[in-house]
Amino acid sequence: LNRHHGGVKIQPDRLLADIEALAAIGDTGDGGNCRLALTDEDAGGRELVVGWMRDLGLDVRVDRIGNVVATRAGAESTGAGNDAAPVMTGSHIDTVGTGGRYDGTLGVLAGLEVVRALDDAGIRTRRPVAVAFFTDEEGSRFAPDMLGSLVYAGGMPLEDALDIVAIDGAVLGTELERIGWTGDAAVPGPAPHAYVELHIEQGPVLEEAGVTIGAVTGVQGISWQELTLTGQANHAGTTPMRLRRDPAYVAAQTIGFVRRLATDLGGHQVGTVGRLDLHPDLVNVVAARATLTVDLRNTDEAVLAEAERRLRGHVAALASAEGCEGAWRRLARFQPVAFDPAVIDLVESTAERLGHSVMRLPSGAGHDAQMLARVCPTGMVFVPSRAGVSHNPAEFTEPEHLAAGTEVLAEVLTELAGVVE
Amino acid sequence: LNRHHGGVKIQPDRLLADIEALAAIGDTGDGGNCRLALTDEDAGGRELVVGWMRDLGLDVRVDRIGNVVATRAGAESTGAGNDAAPVMTGSHIDTVGTGGRYDGTLGVLAGLEVVRALDDAGIRTRRPVAVAFFTDEEGSRFAPDMLGSLVYAGGMPLEDALDIVAIDGAVLGTELERIGWTGDAAVPGPAPHAYVELHIEQGPVLEEAGVTIGAVTGVQGISWQELTLTGQANHAGTTPMRLRRDPAYVAAQTIGFVRRLATDLGGHQVGTVGRLDLHPDLVNVVAARATLTVDLRNTDEAVLAEAERRLRGHVAALASAEGCEGAWRRLARFQPVAFDPAVIDLVESTAERLGHSVMRLPSGAGHDAQMLARVCPTGMVFVPSRAGVSHNPAEFTEPEHLAAGTEVLAEVLTELAGVVE
User: Fold this and answer.
1) Residue A274: which of B270, B278, B388 has the nearest Cβ?
2) Can you give the C-alpha Rg of chain A in angstroms?
3) What percent of chain A has pLDDT over 70?
4) How far apart are CA B75 and CA A62, in angstroms?
5) pLDDT of residue A282
6) Can you list the alpha helix ranges (DSSP code H) found in A282-393?
7) Average pLDDT over chain A, rounded to an integer
8) CA–CA dist B20, B131 (Å, integer)
9) Using a CB-CB distance cutoff of 8 angstroms, which residues of chain A are in contact with residue B262?
10) B168 CB neighbour count, 10 Å cutoff
11) DSSP structure string for B71-139
């Protein structure tokens, strides 16, 4: 890489103004945003952002699934179809139903601020710099999530994606046509030279550590399982303890084991029982059945698989000891994604060079970057989320952290694109 | 007591036929019965049973709350208003919505069979023998349960009882009038000389032990509490284990502690968490709130109070360690009832004398007998429930166990009433 020593001066006020303006579309009145994928509100957001892209003189292409890629030409561009692969940044502008104003939008709008800063400084990069936003990252209306980037990266055929039916019964392809965002650029899209995404952490780790920049090492693998424990309903007064076959007791032991498992395996292993239902759920009846979910995540596939094995083995013993039956159902399983070591190093060293505190951490949530990681060297920059809150109107990141992240992004993209001296 | 050595020969077939006939009223078609208190079905049951009482020449009195007491005169009777206090047996003929055919009805119909057997043998007892059935024992339609016997024993003013509103909006006094069962006998009713009730166990203890007769020592005290644990909702992927404040984890530890508490305190202590709700109850969100109930029961008031104290203390420590708040709400609290030692001894020795296996045990469920225990020496006879099942169409007791229990009841009542030799 052609090491760039200049410094790209970003202007935080412009970024904040853009975030404010985009947040006015689908404003839920409580500080939050609702721009579910391919709704009129999503279309409104698209119009606004693409308008800004055109104002910056970028080459805007819309693909068959509605992903938008806006490119600032590089010095090595030699005309249509023959350009050097761009260094790409981006994220998404759709939100969950009760979304905040930073999740996704930060990565897209910071990308545009980087372009403005490059323009201001009159910097010509060797490779093009592209700013993208991908369709339906949240998956709240059309499952699965990260859909647009999945299709961009070749992970799902276009036809399958267009046939997806929303929770409201709408068909994805039809909705894309209706809002006028079916483009003609082919999918899968061209592989970028590299992809770096700025995003809010959506977790409490950076805030807790008092650190400004996260150099994201990858995305956790996810295992979701549902466990149904069947015992015997009994009278709470007349049934001695030794004669009980209580699935609530086995469920409780399972919750305790999930905590121990995560603690024992250490590292980035987490485990959560967030759902638990008893039947018949009465104060004076020993439950007949308990249904609970176990969410296990790890950056290391081998450890995640080991966690699943230990969980199933231990629960089988617990259930048997109580005279209960246990039945598992797999709800979801994704392998971990590891980001590119050189990109991770670059994010970390750039933050240090700019004087920001920095730490490496994995992402616990899914991001478009994990799809791009299938086709090019990829990394992410995290900035702190207040109290770790996201997917919530209370989602908030300090303006100085937004600025710091954008500054790091600007330097990293410039470094990766190379500067024509 | 004038020891009776004769033997009162009961005829099981008559008892079984009566159970069958009563079960035809409010038959739910699945082997079960629905005669909720003061419904037309309850009225139908009352007509049938009171018809039998009159056929036996008993003096039938209905009181202001609809309790029915049918009395066989004793040798010491000296005319109206001047009789010796009767030895009373009985139970109830109302059922829960999904009731079986033995709960309550056995005690009433076995009482009538005892009267028939006394008549057959030409036995004159010194004291009168009375067979009663009490209004609304189940409490399924009009809370609280054991209402009729509570009013009989002076535990609730008549006016308060008549004003109770049903779950279906009906008023108790109005319903009692409507079905024609408001009597003129005063409440509280006269204290019997003694009260002995035959009932199915509704639990698995006798069956498990292979024992035919239970000499019931009393009724467990009951403590119902609701615990609300408040933590912090968090992302299941992005929140490290050490930063969690997970009320589901504290709920699980509480369930484990309730089991340990019951086991450690031993004796007749039982503890049950039958209800547990998480909020928001999502697979990928650490819960913000857990609400659970704890049902603690013991025959010993001091131990029950100690169990409550230990539970609250331990949960406070668990919640604090996890950074959660715990709030308790008392749902119900009843002190244990101890039956009369002489009556317990008599039930036990009578069973032994008749060659039935017998054991002492407390009742985990509430019974009319615990109300009568306020005004006279009281005891109960239990017979086994198959698999401990009750309040269910599958409720079943072997015919030979029904016969054995009735035989014991007959001897105990005759013993207590005294025989004119």
Assistant:
1) B278
2) 24
3) 97
4) 105
5) 87
6) 301-322, 341-353, 368-372
7) 94
8) 19
9) 241
10) 10
11) EE--TT--STT-PPPPEEEEE-----TTB-SSTTHHHHHHHHHHHHHHHHHTPPBSS-EEEEE-S-SS-
Of B203, B237, B249, the CB nearest to A238: B203
Nearest in space to A350 (alpha carbons), one of A405, A277, A274, A307: A405
In this prediction, residue B288 carries a pLDDT of: 94
Provide the pLDDT confidence category of residue A332 given band limits of 50, 70 and 90.
Answer: confident
* pLDDT score of B399 more than 70: yes
Q: State whether residue A365 is helix, strand or coil.
A: coil
Characterize B233-249 residue by residue with b for buried, 16 or more Cβ atoms within 10 angstroms of its Cβ, and e for exposed.
bbbbbbbbbebbbbbbb
**3 state DSSP class of B284:** coil
Report the distance separating Cα A198 and Cα A379, nearest Å: 9
Calculate helix-pair angle for A399-417, A12-23, nearest 10 degrees: 110
Bridge partner residues of A294 (DSSP): A225
B208 touches chain A (CB under 8 A): yes
DSSP SS3 for A185: strand
Q: At B270, which amino acid appears?
A: V
Q: Which of residues 147-206 of A touch B (CB under 8 A)?
A: 201-205
Beta-carbon contacts of residue A32 (< 8 Å; ≥ 6 apart): A98, A99, A100, A101, A392, A393, A395
- Report which of B168, B91, B189 is spatially closest to residue B135, judged by C-alpha positions: B91
For residues A176 and A38, what is the distance between their CA atoms, to the nearest angstrom?
6
DSSP A106-135: HHHHHHHHHHHHHHHTTPPBSS-EEEEE-S
Tokens of B335: 């002190």
The number of CA neighbours under 13 Å toward the Cβ of B45 is 33
DSSP state letters, B143-212: SSSSHHHHHHTTSS-HHHHHTPBPTTS-BHHHHHHHTT----B-SSPPPPSEEEEEEE--SSHHHHHT-S
CB neighbourhood size of B1 (10 A): 11
Bridge pairing between strands B358-363 and B325-334: unpaired
**Which of B234, B253, B285 faces A256 most closely, judged by CB atoms?**
B253
* pLDDT (0 to 100) of residue A80: 53
Interface of B with A in 280-299 (CB under 8 A): 281-287, 293, 295, 297
Which tokens in the block code for residue A284?
């004076």
Q: Suggest the residue from A205, A216, A272 to mutate for an interface test with chain B (most B CBs closer than 10 A).
A: A272
CA B90/CA B403 separation, integer angstroms: 16
Mean pLDDT of B154-171: 95
Q: Is A237 on the interface with B (CB under 8 A)?
A: yes
d(CA A364, CA B104): 58
pLDDT at B3 over 60: no
Provide, as residue numbers in chain A, all residues whose Cβ is less than 8 Å from the Cβ of B278: 274-276
Q: Per-residue pLDDT tens for A89-138?
A: 999 999 998 899 999 999 999 999 999 999 999 999 999 999 999 999 99
Kindly report the nearest CA distance between residue A322 and chain B, in angstroms. 12
Contact between chains at B237 and A262 (C-beta distance less than 8 A) = no
Cβ contact A274–B263 (<8 Å) = no
The tens digit of pLDDT for each residue in A191-232 reads: 999 999 999 999 999 999 999 999 999 999 999 999 999 999
User: Which residues in chain B are closer than 8 Å to A248, comparing Cβ atoms?
Assistant: 255, 273-274, 276
B218 touches A: beta carbon within 8 Å:
no
Q: Which of A193, A280, A383 is nearest to B391 (CA)?
A: A280
Is B249–A243 a contact, with Cβ atoms under 8 angstroms apart? Answer: no
Which of the residues B145, B211, B238, B304 would you substitute to probe the A interface, choosing the one with the greatest number of A C-beta atoms within 10 Å? B238
Given a cut of 50, whether residue A236 has pLDDT beyond it is: yes
A62 touches chain B (CB under 8 A): no
Structure confidence by residue, pLDDT tens digits, A32-69: 999 999 999 999 999 999 999 999 999 999 999 999 99
